[in-house]
Description:
Layout (H helix, E strand, L loop, with lengths): L21 E6 L6 H14 L3 E4 L2 H7 L8 H19 L3 E6 L5 H14 L2 E7 L3 H7 L4 H6 L21 E3 L6 H14 L4
Parallel strand pairs: 1-3, 1-4, 2-3, 4-5
Helix pairs in contact: 1-7, 3-4
Amino acid sequence: MSGATAPGTDRTGSTDGTGIGATVWLTGLPSAGKTTIARALAGRLRDGGHRVEVLDGDEIREFLSAGLGFSREDRHTNVTRIGFVAQKLAANGVVVLVPVIAPYADSREAVRKRHQAEGTAFLEVHVATPVEVCSERDVKGLYARQAAGQLSGLTGVDDPYEAPAAPDLRIEAHTEPVADSAARLHALLAERGLA
C-alpha cells in the first residue's frame, strides 16, 4: 500500500478539517510580533483538535541551519530549508506556523512554489509592524545593538526587507491585541477550509 492519501483527507481518511495540513508563513521585521501571534494561533488550533507545529526561526537557526550566516545566499538557504520541512509536515496533516522573517520575496516565492508543486496549502501573512514600533519593542535587543554599532545586517534597518506585495493576509499587529490578530488569521484558515 502506498503512502498516498486522497486530497482533503489525512492518513486516516479524516475529512473533518482537523487532518488537513497547511503552512502559514508569518513574515515581518524583527520584533514585529510574528512568534507571539503564531503561538496564540497555535493554541486556538490545538483547542480545535488540530495538529500544529510552530517552526520558530531562532530554534531553526540553532538546530537545522547552524553554521549559516546572514548573507543573502545563507538567508535564502535557511528559508528554503524551513520551507522544505514545513511542506513535509503540512503534507501529513499538520498546520505549520512559520514565524520567520524571510526578508526576500524570491525566497518566499520559492517556498510557495514548492508547496504548490506538492499540492500543499501555503498562506503568506505579513505582520506589518513599522520599524519604529519594532525598535521600541526590541524583544531581543537587536535594534539597540545595531544602533550601538555592535550589529550590522539588521533586516529592515541596514539590510533589506521586501514586504509582500499581495499577502494572503496583512496584520498590523501594532494596532490590535494579539488575540484579535490570531482570531483574524484563524478566520482566514477557516474560510480556506484549513481550520
